[in-house]
Design brief:
Helix content is 54%, strand content 9%. It has 319 residues and is α/β, with parallel strands linked by helices. The chain folds into three domains: 2-149, no CATH class; 159-248, no CATH class; 273-318, no CATH class. Strands 1-2-3-5-4 form a five-stranded mixed β-sheet. A hairpin with a 2-residue loop joins strand 1 (2-5) and strand 2.
Length: 319
């Protein structure tokens, strides 16, 4: 079964179409009408004609139920995906962990040839039958594909080969997977496409994957979750040598990122946190023991801590 979204052709595996229709109609009033249509097709004597009519019936109900809307909508939300591919193939995923998206590139063309690139989606029938679930999955997966197509991200699978000389390949890819998920979920949050609690969940996963960072894990995490412009090469370098990459990376928050104390995004950071009076820095560390002036803080937090320190000083003078 083939549909079109603009210039991008979307081909659905017939078995997926059939099972998605069955899953979507199960227990609904329209199921009886569908079953009656199937029973009529069973009466066709010629096997080839019978199979053709089954496919037409399932395709018609697939469109009638709008089961391809989530796929088409998610693709339209990422204009670089249809612009960078010529075809989308949607096939049946054997299990939930195997659901996802991938970019298939002809070996003789390289990644810069859109005419030979295919978007592969693996989905379960239950996912297509639940538009909200399908949309959540596809938004995350297609951001990964958009990165692969973005020259600024610089996706290059061969970069893993050099890094794998320093760290076991399985560990390298596991770390890279977590970093890329953090990068993608940060953008989902900023677009309002992520459920509550995503940041905290990803931070826990990041800390488990990089225990060697200790108290610096939150700051390193923020670089990927909050920071724009992270490249494939940076992800690979961090996955290979997280301690070295973390210590050599530029420190402190940057315009548009979150204050490490209040957690709010801001463009107004304290210009010289290392020059804050000792009493102010000490008061900050009471609430955030791992904080360091190099981590920075927003001006609002700095003003609040200055005021609190002044208030404490006045109180002690009166006493």
């Amino acid at each position: 079964m083939s549909l079109a979204q603009g210039e991008l052709s979307i081909d659905y595996e017939p078995r997926l179409v059939e099972e998605a229709v069955l899953a979507a109609l199960r227990g609904r009033p329209a199921e009886a009408e569908f079953r009656a249509g199937r029973d009529a097709v069973y009466g066709i004597a010629d096997p080839e004609e019978r199979e053709t009519q089954f496919r037409r019936l399932h395709a018609a109900w697939f469109e009638r139920l709008g089961l391809g809307d989530a796929v088409g909508g998610a693709i339209r939300e990422q204009p670089t995906v249809p612009a960078g591919t010529s075809r989308c193939v949607v096939v049946l995923a054997p299990s939930r962990p195997e659901e996802g998206a991938d970019l298939l590139v002809a070996a003789d063309e390289g990644p810069a040839a859109p005419a030979r690139r295919t978007l592969l989606l693996q989905l379960r029938p239950e996912t297509l039958a639940d538009p909200d679930r399908a949309r959540r999955l596809l938004r995350r997966e297609l951001l990964h594909v958009a990165d692969m197509l973005d020259p600024a991200f610089g996706y290059a699978p061969e970069a893993f080969a050099a890094a794998a000389r320093r760290v076991p390949p399985a560990l390298l890819r596991g770390r890279y997977r977590v970093l890329w998920a953090v990068l993608v979920d940060g953008r989902l949050v900023r677009r309002g496409w992520a459920p509550p609690g995503v940041r905290a969940a990803r931070l826990r996963e990041f800390a488990r994957m990089f225990p060697m960072l200790g108290a610096r894990a939150a700051a390193a995490f923020g670089r990927f979750f909050d920071g724009p412009g992270v490249t494939h090469a940076e992800l690979v370098a961090f996955a290979a040598e997280p301690v070295q990459a973390s210590s050599s990376a530029r420190r402190g928050p940057h315009a548009g990122e979150r204050c490490p104390l209040c957690g709010c995004p801001t463009y107004a950071f304290e210009p010289a946190p290392e020059r804050l009076p000792p009493a102010v820095r000490e008061r900050i560390r009471r609430g955030a023991p791992a904080w360091d002036p190099a981590d920075g803080l927003c001006r609002q937090c700095a003003d609040l801590y200055r005021a609190a320190a002044r208030g404490a000083s006045v109180g002690s003078d009166i006493a």
